[in-house]
Each structure stands twice: as C-alpha cells, then as structure tokens.
Write a structure and sequence with these properties.
It is built from eight helices and twelve strands. It is of the alpha/beta class and 270 residues long. The chain has one domain: 4-Layer Sandwich (Metallo-beta-lactamase, Chain A), CATH 3.60.15.10. The chain has a seven-stranded mixed β-sheet.
Length: 270
C-alpha cells in the first residue's frame, strides 16, 4: 500500500554514541558518524528521501558528508532512494553481489509491484561485496556477513559504535522476512526453494556474531519505538542488550518453519 511521504513519520534520534536513526515507520534508515564522513545503512523508499534528508539535518549531521551507502538487500523499501542519494552526495553504493541484478533492474524482483509501487530508479552499485568483506571509514570498520534467503544477496553488517568512553558492537540484520520464501512467491518468480535452507543456515551463522546493539531494517524487528521511549525516559543505554540478537535469529527460523507447516497443511486440505 502506498504511504504518503508525510505520513507515518518518526522522530530522528541518537541511538548511542555515533549511531543514529533517521528513517520512518515503514523503513528504517541508520547513519554512522565515523569522524571522517558518514555511512548510511539502507535508504528507504525513493519518494521518501526528503524525509530522511530532513532527519539527517535534524540530528545535527550534513547529508553531503555521506561517503558510503550500505544496503542490506535489493528491495525497494531499502534501496529505493540509493540512486538519488548517490547523485546528491557522491557517496559510493555498497550492495551484496548476488543482488546486483535487482539494483540494475535486470531482474524485476525489487518487491515494488507487491507494494503497489514502481522501481524506476535503477542503479549500478559501486562496490559489490561478498561474505566477510570489510570497509573502513574513519573510526569505523563495517564487516559484511552474507545472509541469503530473503534475497540471495542480503547482507548483515557489524561495526563498533562509541560515545568516546564506552564502545559496543552493533549489528544490522540483513533481512528476516519470509514473505519472499513462501511457496507462491518462489513459484511466481521461478526462484529455488533452496533459499529456505540458505535462510536457516544464515540465521544460525548470525548467532556466531556478538551483538550488543541490535538494529533492524524495520522498526518492529528490534522494537525501536519502545526503546526510543526508554531513551526519552532517561535510559541512555536503551538499545544496549546483548541478550536480544540470538533469540531473534532463532525466532526467524521458527517463523519460517511455521509458514512451511501451514503450507503443507493447506496442501493436504487440513
């Protein structure tokens, strides 16, 4: 369903130290101030870029300082504004190699049609990354971990955030949605059912990572609104919770299994 840009807004804010939330309810966008330039994590929809730009200014940062745009995966709600943001800032776009054709439009799998939109701002990524690749800017090194399933090239990103005194490890989940792993979706686009196995293996792999600050590519994944309220109530470490990451990954696996079980029952007419 199309959401008007001026609806479903959310206040931009500092999560901890040099990590900020500058997105909105329908798509999370995060930004890291590395001291030598900014890193944007996902861009949201193309028609809502002006909201993100305004949010970046609101937290005291300048969008023209953006050097890298890291994208978790090739869906319009996460990379829709990548081309426009690159043209505005000159930043380099970073995307998982297996999602390259999603970005260029050679594969029409941006999920735009499913959302009643059109992905008409295709682009060529500047840097195609693979599992384990690292990119450094200023005081921040971002490490990519392949998280195939939701899309073949979904990437999760890990990096340290600091307030100058304390440092925590942050993790951005690359894609936990099972909507693209349903039988109907896989058959519609002639995608391999092995993506389901890839998804489960990826979630287990993510559990090997230490994460103190869990950030999601949608607000509900990491309970952003609730934690934001805690920040307002004086809890400066509302997003610091090392016990949150692993249970979420295991829930993702269980969520997929439940969907497959329902599909099986429907096929049997039960």
């Amino acid at each position: 369903m199309f959401v008007k840009p001026w609806e479903n807004l959310f206040p931009p804010f500092k999560i901890f130290g040099n990590l900020y939330f500058v997105g909105y309810e329908s798509a999370s966008v995060h930004i890291i101030d590395t001291g030598e330039g900014l890193i944007v994590l996902d861009t949201g929809y193309q028609h809502r870029l002006y909201v993100t730009i305004d949010n970046i200014y609101a937290v005291g940062l300048n969008p023209h300082d953006i050097k890298y745009i890291f994208l978790t995966h090739g869906h319009i709600d996460h990379f829709g504004a990548a081309r426009a943001l690159k043209e505005l800032t000159g930043a380099k776009i970073v995307l998982g190699k297996a999602d390259e054709l999603y970005a260029t439009g050679e594969l029409d799998l941006s999920f735009a049609k499913e959302l009643g939109l059109e992905f008409n701002e295709t682009f060529e990524p500047d840097i195609l990354i693979n599992d384990g690749d690292c990119i450094r800017l200023g005081n921040t090194t971002v490490t990519a971990v392949a998280t195939p399933g939701h899309t073949p090239g979904a990437m999760s990103y890990f990096f340290d955030v600091t307030d100058g005194t304390e440092t925590y490890r942050a993790g951005l989940h690359g894609g936990m949605g099972i909507n693209t792993l349903s039988k109907d979706f896989l058959n519609k686009y002639d995608l391999p059912f092995s993506l389901r196995d890839d998804f489960c293996k990826a979630m287990l792999r993510l559990n090997e990572e230490r994460v103190d600050i869990f950030i999601g590519n949608h607000m509900q994944h990491n309970k952003t609104p609730q934690k934001y309220q805690e920040l307002l109530n004086g809890n400066t470490k509302a997003f610091v919770n090392p016990d949150e990451w692993n249970p979420f990954n295991l829930w993702c696996i269980e969520n997929l299994k439940n969907m497959i079980d329902k599909e099986t029952l429907n096929e049997k007419g039960i």
